[in-house]
Prior knowledge:
Blueprint: E1 4-15, E2 31-41, E3 44-50, E4 60-63, E5 68-71, E6 73-75, H1 88-94, H2 99-104, H3 109-118, H4 121-137, E7 140-146, H5 153-169, E8 173-181, H6 192-209, E9 214-219, H7 226-238, E10 242-247, H8 255-262, E11 266-269, H9 275-284, E12 287-290, H10 292-298, H11 305-310, E13 315-317, H12 331-340, H13 346-352, H14 355-360, E14 378-381, H15 386-391, E15 398-403, E16 406-410, E17 413-414
Parallel strand pairs: 1-4, 1-5, 6-7, 7-8, 8-9, 9-10, 10-11, 11-12, 12-13
Antiparallel strand pairs: 1-2, 2-3, 5-14, 14-15, 15-16, 16-17
Amino acid sequence: MMDNFxxxxxxxxxxxxxxxxxAGRAMADLIVIEDAYLAVASGKIIAIxxxxxxxxxxxxxxxxxxxxxxxxxxxxxxxxxxxxSREGEMRKRLEGATYLEILSAGGGIHSxxxxxxxxxxxxxxxxxxxxxxxxxxxxxGTVEVKSGYGLDKENELxxxxxxxxxxxxxPQRLVATYLGAHALPAEYKNDxxxxxALVKETLDEIKREELAGFCDVFCENGVFTVAESREILEYxxxxxxxxxxxxxxxxxxGGAKLAAELGSAFADHLLAAGDDDFERLAAAGVIAIILPLxxxxxxxxxxxxxxxxxxxxAVAIATDYNPGTSPSYNLPLAMQMAVHGAGMMPAEALTAAxxxxxxxxxxxxxxxxxxxxxxxxxxxxxxxxxxYFFYRFGENRxxxxxxxxxxxxxxxxxx
Length: 415
């Protein structure tokens, strides 16, 4: 690791700025510097500028080759830790079965739960570690990871301990979320109150061990009602955990309204949310996470992101990486789908994959933008400007990745 270095010959440096989420049309406000340089010392950014102003700065030189430099990407919604695969469900969906129909027949989450319960912590760790390395090659430096495939105390804690192990090892920063309320497990199908009591008991242990900073609930018809979701999230909030909601993905049940009422960090999915929901989210400062890969995989229309932005909502883009409804960890592709399919502008999409998720995760004072004093988490892309990144969709144009000032990908290869 070089303690001091300067990246020069940057064709374009593009970054949002600040330590709070950008909402509405302010999401398009970037600092864009051509012929730029970036100086790093002890893992922090110490200078940014243009032209030959870097020549007096100390440190080794890294030639960006005229490429684009952006902040490292942040994926604020994943289900990274699981066992098993569900490709067999894809044909059922193509033949017309809905997600909830598959779930009620014992598939969906229940299939993954069965495999995950059988897997050892080491097996889950190895699978997740392999995926994290692939994510690193795409420039993803911070990853939120949910539990939710154990659906009992023992296995939910097992998943969260794996997440914490991966976070401690690095190089990526992981943020753990407890999603015990992901589905009602089969053994509790006639005892909803009993399972909610178990979720609360598990939350108590999570707090004791400090295993997660967030609690999430799948608030949806056939899963958890608004009242049940509120009960769980209020309990988690009283313990000091931040809240977030899988909201209004398939039906307009009221998940977005609940997220606004509770002042949650995020409301995610929102495919069935309406304009009044967007107004509430904007007023409450809740970040809306759109998940274009999930909508694409399920053959659904993309989230109404332009309406969200017009209503002043802060928007983030994530992958929803999971084995059933979004088996892809490709956040750059999700960004490109948000532009080409959902109507975002390139600058908005960059903010939605850097600063806004950082803010929602409580990391924006040191991650999510390229500014003096922040962590040197950045990507050198093999493309000349931001528009080109979105123009050449589906390609991995990441050349080098630096996290905390340390090169972790060089010339497209892991170090």
